# Entry
Amino acid sequence: MTHPLRFGIWALVHGPRAAHQDPEEPYDASWQRNRDLVLKAEALGFDSTLVAQHTINPHQEDLDQLEAWSAAAALAALTSRIEIITAIKPYLYHPVVLAKMALGIENISRGRFAINLVNAWNRPELERAGIGFAEHDERYAYGREWITLVSRLLQGERLTHKGRYFDVQDYALRPKDLYRARPRIYVGGESEPARALVADHGDVWFINGQPLDDVAGLIRDVAERPRNAAPPLRFGLSAFVIARPTTDEAEAAHHRLLRLAEKDAPMKAIQKANTDPKVVMMQTMQKSARVGSNGGTAAGLVGSYDEVADRIIAFYAAGIELFMLQFQPFEAEMKRFAEEVIPRVRQRQTGAGSALRDSDRRVG
# Structure
Protein backbone atom coordinates (compact mmCIF):
# COMPACT_ATOMS: atom_id res chain seq x y z
CA MET A 1 0.00 0.00 0.00
CA THR A 2 1.24 3.49 -0.89
CA HIS A 3 -0.86 5.34 1.67
CA PRO A 4 -0.62 4.84 5.43
CA LEU A 5 -3.31 2.88 7.21
CA ARG A 6 -5.64 5.29 9.03
CA PHE A 7 -8.40 4.93 11.63
CA GLY A 8 -11.47 7.12 11.98
CA ILE A 9 -14.70 7.22 13.95
CA TRP A 10 -18.32 7.88 13.07
CA ALA A 11 -19.66 10.84 15.04
CA LEU A 12 -22.82 10.00 16.99
CA VAL A 13 -25.04 12.42 15.12
CA HIS A 14 -28.20 10.38 15.73
CA GLY A 15 -27.33 8.38 18.80
CA PRO A 16 -26.06 4.80 19.23
CA ARG A 17 -24.90 2.88 16.18
CA ALA A 18 -25.78 -0.65 17.34
CA ALA A 19 -28.79 -0.61 19.67
CA HIS A 20 -30.92 2.23 20.98
CA GLN A 21 -32.02 0.51 24.19
CA ASP A 22 -28.60 -0.25 25.65
CA PRO A 23 -28.24 0.75 29.34
CA GLU A 24 -24.49 1.14 28.74
CA GLU A 25 -25.09 3.67 25.93
CA PRO A 26 -27.85 6.19 26.83
CA TYR A 27 -29.24 8.09 23.86
CA ASP A 28 -27.28 11.30 23.30
CA ALA A 29 -26.89 13.00 19.92
CA SER A 30 -26.03 16.39 21.41
CA TRP A 31 -23.36 18.77 20.20
CA GLN A 32 -21.63 18.52 23.58
CA ARG A 33 -21.36 14.74 23.42
CA ASN A 34 -20.09 14.78 19.83
CA ARG A 35 -17.59 17.54 20.59
CA ASP A 36 -16.16 15.60 23.51
CA LEU A 37 -16.13 12.35 21.50
CA VAL A 38 -14.15 13.83 18.60
CA LEU A 39 -11.69 15.59 20.91
CA LYS A 40 -11.16 12.30 22.75
CA ALA A 41 -10.67 10.45 19.45
CA GLU A 42 -8.04 12.98 18.40
CA ALA A 43 -6.23 12.60 21.73
CA LEU A 44 -6.27 8.81 21.36
CA GLY A 45 -4.60 9.03 17.94
CA PHE A 46 -7.52 8.53 15.55
CA ASP A 47 -6.95 10.17 12.20
CA SER A 48 -10.42 11.07 10.98
CA THR A 49 -14.06 11.54 11.90
CA LEU A 50 -17.15 11.27 9.70
CA VAL A 51 -20.10 13.54 10.46
CA ALA A 52 -23.14 12.08 8.70
CA GLN A 53 -25.77 14.51 7.41
CA HIS A 54 -29.49 14.26 8.16
CA THR A 55 -31.99 17.03 8.70
CA ILE A 56 -34.33 14.72 10.63
CA ASN A 57 -33.45 11.53 12.50
CA PRO A 58 -33.62 8.64 9.99
CA HIS A 59 -34.61 6.09 12.62
CA GLN A 60 -37.33 7.90 14.54
CA GLU A 61 -38.30 11.46 13.74
CA ASP A 62 -38.93 12.57 17.35
CA LEU A 63 -35.32 11.75 18.32
CA ASP A 64 -32.55 14.33 18.26
CA GLN A 65 -30.35 14.77 15.19
CA LEU A 66 -27.10 16.79 15.14
CA GLU A 67 -26.77 19.27 12.28
CA ALA A 68 -23.66 18.22 10.38
CA TRP A 69 -22.25 21.35 8.78
CA SER A 70 -22.48 23.75 11.70
CA ALA A 71 -20.99 21.01 13.91
CA ALA A 72 -18.17 20.46 11.42
CA ALA A 73 -17.26 24.16 11.46
CA ALA A 74 -17.10 24.11 15.25
CA LEU A 75 -15.03 20.92 15.26
CA ALA A 76 -12.65 22.48 12.75
CA ALA A 77 -11.96 25.32 15.20
CA LEU A 78 -11.63 23.08 18.26
CA THR A 79 -9.39 20.33 16.88
CA SER A 80 -5.80 20.51 15.65
CA ARG A 81 -4.95 17.27 13.81
CA ILE A 82 -7.92 15.03 13.03
CA GLU A 83 -9.49 15.06 9.54
CA ILE A 84 -13.13 16.20 9.55
CA ILE A 85 -15.27 14.58 6.85
CA THR A 86 -18.81 15.89 6.53
CA ALA A 87 -21.48 14.19 4.46
CA ILE A 88 -23.59 16.13 2.01
CA LYS A 89 -26.79 15.30 0.14
CA PRO A 90 -26.66 17.40 -3.04
CA TYR A 91 -30.38 18.22 -3.17
CA LEU A 92 -30.14 20.09 0.15
CA TYR A 93 -27.57 22.69 -0.96
CA HIS A 94 -26.92 24.55 -4.19
CA PRO A 95 -23.35 23.72 -5.31
CA VAL A 96 -22.19 27.36 -5.07
CA VAL A 97 -23.42 27.63 -1.46
CA LEU A 98 -21.98 24.27 -0.44
CA ALA A 99 -18.60 24.95 -2.05
CA LYS A 100 -18.38 28.27 -0.19
CA MET A 101 -19.19 26.55 3.11
CA ALA A 102 -16.64 23.80 2.44
CA LEU A 103 -13.89 26.29 1.67
CA GLY A 104 -14.70 28.14 4.87
CA ILE A 105 -14.39 25.01 7.00
CA GLU A 106 -11.28 23.95 5.10
CA ASN A 107 -9.58 27.21 6.02
CA ILE A 108 -10.82 27.14 9.63
CA SER A 109 -9.32 23.63 9.96
CA ARG A 110 -6.09 24.62 8.19
CA GLY A 111 -6.46 21.97 5.49
CA ARG A 112 -8.14 19.11 7.38
CA PHE A 113 -11.63 19.16 5.85
CA ALA A 114 -13.29 16.76 3.41
CA ILE A 115 -16.75 16.21 1.99
CA ASN A 116 -18.52 12.87 1.68
CA LEU A 117 -20.94 12.86 -1.25
CA VAL A 118 -24.03 10.76 -0.50
CA ASN A 119 -26.88 10.79 -3.00
CA ALA A 120 -29.61 10.24 -0.39
CA TRP A 121 -31.66 7.24 0.70
CA ASN A 122 -33.96 8.67 3.39
CA ARG A 123 -37.09 9.68 1.50
CA PRO A 124 -38.88 11.90 4.11
CA GLU A 125 -35.99 14.36 4.40
CA LEU A 126 -36.51 15.48 0.83
CA GLU A 127 -40.21 14.80 0.26
CA ARG A 128 -41.47 16.62 3.35
CA ALA A 129 -39.33 19.63 2.50
CA GLY A 130 -41.03 19.87 -0.90
CA ILE A 131 -37.76 19.09 -2.68
CA GLY A 132 -38.95 15.74 -3.98
CA PHE A 133 -37.24 12.37 -3.98
CA ALA A 134 -36.09 11.55 -7.48
CA GLU A 135 -35.60 8.03 -8.84
CA HIS A 136 -32.27 6.36 -7.93
CA ASP A 137 -30.36 6.91 -11.18
CA GLU A 138 -31.78 10.42 -11.52
CA ARG A 139 -30.35 11.29 -8.10
CA TYR A 140 -26.94 10.15 -9.30
CA ALA A 141 -27.22 12.18 -12.50
CA TYR A 142 -28.01 15.24 -10.38
CA GLY A 143 -25.14 14.40 -8.01
CA ARG A 144 -22.71 14.04 -10.90
CA GLU A 145 -23.42 17.53 -12.26
CA TRP A 146 -23.48 18.91 -8.71
CA ILE A 147 -20.05 17.53 -7.71
CA THR A 148 -18.57 18.67 -11.02
CA LEU A 149 -19.44 22.25 -10.13
CA VAL A 150 -18.42 21.92 -6.48
CA SER A 151 -15.03 20.44 -7.35
CA ARG A 152 -14.23 23.18 -9.83
CA LEU A 153 -15.30 25.92 -7.42
CA LEU A 154 -13.26 24.35 -4.61
CA GLN A 155 -10.19 24.59 -6.83
CA GLY A 156 -10.67 28.33 -7.22
CA GLU A 157 -11.83 28.18 -10.83
CA ARG A 158 -13.93 31.00 -12.26
CA LEU A 159 -16.90 28.97 -13.41
CA THR A 160 -19.45 29.36 -16.16
CA HIS A 161 -21.69 26.33 -16.58
CA LYS A 162 -25.09 25.65 -18.11
CA GLY A 163 -26.29 22.09 -17.71
CA ARG A 164 -29.40 20.03 -17.11
CA TYR A 165 -29.76 21.11 -13.48
CA PHE A 166 -27.62 24.22 -12.94
CA ASP A 167 -26.90 27.52 -14.66
CA VAL A 168 -23.91 29.27 -13.09
CA GLN A 169 -22.40 32.34 -14.72
CA ASP A 170 -18.93 33.78 -14.11
CA TYR A 171 -18.69 32.57 -10.50
CA ALA A 172 -15.53 32.34 -8.41
CA LEU A 173 -15.10 31.88 -4.65
CA ARG A 174 -12.53 33.72 -2.53
CA PRO A 175 -10.52 33.09 -0.51
CA LYS A 176 -9.45 29.91 -2.23
CA ASP A 177 -8.11 26.92 -0.32
CA LEU A 178 -5.07 28.25 1.52
CA TYR A 179 -3.50 24.82 2.15
CA ARG A 180 -3.91 22.59 -0.94
CA ALA A 181 -5.62 22.43 -4.32
CA ARG A 182 -9.01 21.60 -2.72
CA PRO A 183 -10.53 19.56 0.12
CA ARG A 184 -10.61 15.80 -0.36
CA ILE A 185 -13.78 14.26 -1.84
CA TYR A 186 -15.12 10.99 -0.47
CA VAL A 187 -17.98 9.25 -2.26
CA GLY A 188 -20.36 6.64 -0.87
CA GLY A 189 -22.64 4.18 -2.65
CA GLU A 190 -22.07 0.86 -4.37
CA SER A 191 -24.52 0.83 -7.27
CA GLU A 192 -23.21 1.08 -10.82
CA PRO A 193 -23.97 4.84 -11.04
CA ALA A 194 -22.15 5.31 -7.71
CA ARG A 195 -19.09 3.40 -8.94
CA ALA A 196 -18.95 5.43 -12.14
CA LEU A 197 -19.32 8.65 -10.15
CA VAL A 198 -16.51 7.89 -7.70
CA ALA A 199 -14.18 6.79 -10.51
CA ASP A 200 -14.74 10.11 -12.27
CA HIS A 201 -14.90 12.55 -9.37
CA GLY A 202 -13.85 10.97 -6.06
CA ASP A 203 -10.58 10.80 -4.20
CA VAL A 204 -11.67 8.05 -1.78
CA TRP A 205 -14.48 5.49 -2.13
CA PHE A 206 -16.30 4.63 1.10
CA ILE A 207 -17.37 0.96 1.07
CA ASN A 208 -19.96 -0.36 3.50
CA GLY A 209 -18.89 -3.11 5.88
CA GLN A 210 -18.93 -6.57 4.34
CA PRO A 211 -16.68 -9.63 4.11
CA LEU A 212 -13.12 -9.31 2.83
CA ASP A 213 -13.66 -11.16 -0.44
CA ASP A 214 -16.62 -8.93 -1.34
CA VAL A 215 -14.66 -5.79 -0.50
CA ALA A 216 -11.69 -6.96 -2.57
CA GLY A 217 -13.99 -7.54 -5.54
CA LEU A 218 -15.46 -4.04 -5.26
CA ILE A 219 -11.98 -2.52 -5.08
CA ARG A 220 -10.82 -4.44 -8.17
CA ASP A 221 -13.85 -3.32 -10.15
CA VAL A 222 -13.51 0.39 -9.43
CA ALA A 223 -9.70 0.54 -9.35
CA GLU A 224 -9.61 -0.70 -12.96
CA ARG A 225 -11.76 2.18 -14.25
CA PRO A 226 -10.12 5.13 -16.05
CA ARG A 227 -9.41 8.19 -13.91
CA ASN A 228 -8.80 10.89 -16.55
CA ALA A 229 -5.29 11.69 -15.29
CA ALA A 230 -6.44 11.92 -11.65
CA PRO A 231 -4.38 10.13 -8.97
CA PRO A 232 -5.31 6.51 -8.24
CA LEU A 233 -8.50 6.13 -6.24
CA ARG A 234 -8.15 5.35 -2.54
CA PHE A 235 -10.54 3.25 -0.43
CA GLY A 236 -12.20 3.40 2.97
CA LEU A 237 -14.32 0.87 4.85
CA SER A 238 -17.06 1.29 7.42
CA ALA A 239 -17.03 -1.28 10.23
CA PHE A 240 -18.36 -1.89 13.72
CA VAL A 241 -15.67 -3.25 16.05
CA ILE A 242 -16.10 -5.63 18.98
CA ALA A 243 -12.63 -6.51 20.28
CA ARG A 244 -11.94 -8.35 23.53
CA PRO A 245 -9.04 -10.30 25.08
CA THR A 246 -10.55 -13.57 23.81
CA THR A 247 -12.77 -14.66 20.95
CA ASP A 248 -15.42 -15.97 23.34
CA GLU A 249 -15.64 -12.63 25.15
CA ALA A 250 -16.02 -10.81 21.84
CA GLU A 251 -18.75 -13.18 20.66
CA ALA A 252 -20.60 -12.77 23.95
CA ALA A 253 -20.49 -8.98 23.57
CA HIS A 254 -21.69 -9.31 19.97
CA HIS A 255 -24.64 -11.50 20.98
CA ARG A 256 -25.56 -9.02 23.71
CA LEU A 257 -25.79 -6.22 21.16
CA LEU A 258 -27.70 -8.42 18.72
CA ARG A 259 -30.30 -9.14 21.40
CA LEU A 260 -30.58 -5.45 22.26
CA ALA A 261 -30.85 -4.54 18.59
CA GLU A 262 -33.90 -6.80 18.26
CA LYS A 263 -35.76 -4.28 20.42
CA ASP A 264 -35.25 -1.70 17.68
CA ALA A 265 -37.43 -3.65 15.21
CA PRO A 266 -40.11 -0.91 15.00
CA MET A 267 -37.45 1.71 14.20
CA LYS A 268 -35.88 -0.53 11.58
CA ALA A 269 -39.27 -1.05 9.96
CA ILE A 270 -39.68 2.74 9.68
CA GLN A 271 -36.20 3.07 8.19
CA LYS A 272 -36.90 0.32 5.66
CA ALA A 273 -40.19 1.93 4.61
CA ASN A 274 -38.44 5.28 4.13
CA THR A 275 -35.56 3.86 2.07
CA ASP A 276 -35.35 3.56 -1.69
CA PRO A 277 -35.22 -0.23 -2.31
CA LYS A 278 -32.67 0.35 -5.07
CA VAL A 279 -30.08 1.55 -2.55
CA VAL A 280 -27.39 -1.13 -2.59
CA MET A 281 -26.31 -0.37 0.99
CA MET A 282 -29.66 -1.57 2.29
CA GLN A 283 -29.54 -4.70 0.14
CA THR A 284 -26.07 -5.52 1.47
CA MET A 285 -27.15 -5.00 5.07
CA GLN A 286 -29.88 -7.64 4.76
CA LYS A 287 -27.44 -10.44 3.92
CA SER A 288 -26.55 -11.40 7.48
CA ALA A 289 -27.34 -10.66 11.12
CA ARG A 290 -25.19 -7.76 12.24
CA VAL A 291 -25.10 -4.70 14.45
CA GLY A 292 -24.05 -1.23 13.48
CA SER A 293 -24.92 0.95 10.51
CA ASN A 294 -23.41 0.92 7.02
CA GLY A 295 -22.64 -2.79 7.19
CA GLY A 296 -21.54 -2.81 10.83
CA THR A 297 -20.17 -6.14 12.04
CA ALA A 298 -20.54 -7.70 8.57
CA ALA A 299 -16.91 -6.68 8.00
CA GLY A 300 -15.90 -9.28 10.59
CA LEU A 301 -14.02 -7.05 13.03
CA VAL A 302 -15.35 -9.12 15.93
CA GLY A 303 -12.89 -11.24 17.89
CA SER A 304 -9.82 -11.18 20.06
CA TYR A 305 -7.46 -8.23 19.85
CA ASP A 306 -5.08 -10.26 17.71
CA GLU A 307 -7.85 -11.53 15.42
CA VAL A 308 -9.20 -8.05 14.80
CA ALA A 309 -5.70 -6.72 14.12
CA ASP A 310 -5.06 -9.55 11.63
CA ARG A 311 -8.35 -8.85 9.81
CA ILE A 312 -7.54 -5.15 9.56
CA ILE A 313 -4.16 -5.98 8.03
CA ALA A 314 -5.90 -8.28 5.53
CA PHE A 315 -8.29 -5.50 4.49
CA TYR A 316 -5.35 -3.12 4.20
CA ALA A 317 -3.54 -5.58 1.95
CA ALA A 318 -6.68 -5.68 -0.25
CA GLY A 319 -6.58 -1.90 -0.63
CA ILE A 320 -8.45 -0.37 2.31
CA GLU A 321 -6.60 2.69 3.59
CA LEU A 322 -9.10 4.23 6.02
CA PHE A 323 -11.20 2.29 8.54
CA MET A 324 -14.19 4.38 9.68
CA LEU A 325 -15.20 2.66 12.89
CA GLN A 326 -18.19 2.36 15.22
CA PHE A 327 -18.29 1.08 18.80
CA GLN A 328 -20.76 0.61 21.67
CA PRO A 329 -20.53 1.89 24.33
CA PHE A 330 -18.62 4.27 22.11
CA GLU A 331 -16.15 6.09 24.33
CA ALA A 332 -15.07 3.03 26.34
CA GLU A 333 -14.69 0.75 23.31
CA MET A 334 -12.96 3.43 21.25
CA LYS A 335 -10.38 3.74 24.04
CA ARG A 336 -10.00 -0.06 24.22
CA PHE A 337 -9.40 -0.20 20.46
CA ALA A 338 -6.80 2.57 20.63
CA GLU A 339 -4.93 0.89 23.48
CA GLU A 340 -5.19 -2.78 22.43
CA VAL A 341 -5.79 -3.11 18.70
CA ILE A 342 -4.00 -0.17 17.08
CA PRO A 343 -0.61 -1.08 18.65
CA ARG A 344 -1.02 -4.66 17.40
CA VAL A 345 -1.79 -3.40 13.90
CA ARG A 346 1.27 -1.15 13.93
CA GLN A 347 3.46 -4.02 15.15
CA ARG A 348 2.25 -6.19 12.29
CA GLN A 349 2.93 -3.41 9.81
CA THR A 350 6.45 -3.00 11.19
CA GLY A 351 7.04 -6.72 11.04
CA ALA A 352 5.77 -6.97 7.49
CA GLY A 353 7.98 -4.05 6.45
CA SER A 354 11.04 -5.64 8.05
CA ALA A 355 10.33 -8.97 6.36
CA LEU A 356 10.00 -7.24 3.00
CA ARG A 357 13.30 -5.40 3.46
CA ASP A 358 15.02 -8.66 4.47
CA SER A 359 13.62 -10.32 1.36
CA ASP A 360 14.89 -7.50 -0.84
CA ARG A 361 18.37 -7.82 0.64
CA ARG A 362 18.42 -11.57 0.02
CA VAL A 363 17.32 -11.08 -3.59
CA GLY A 364 19.94 -8.36 -4.07
About this structure: The chain has a mean pLDDT of 93. Residues 53 and 85 are 11 Å apart (CA to CA). The radius of gyration is 20 Å.
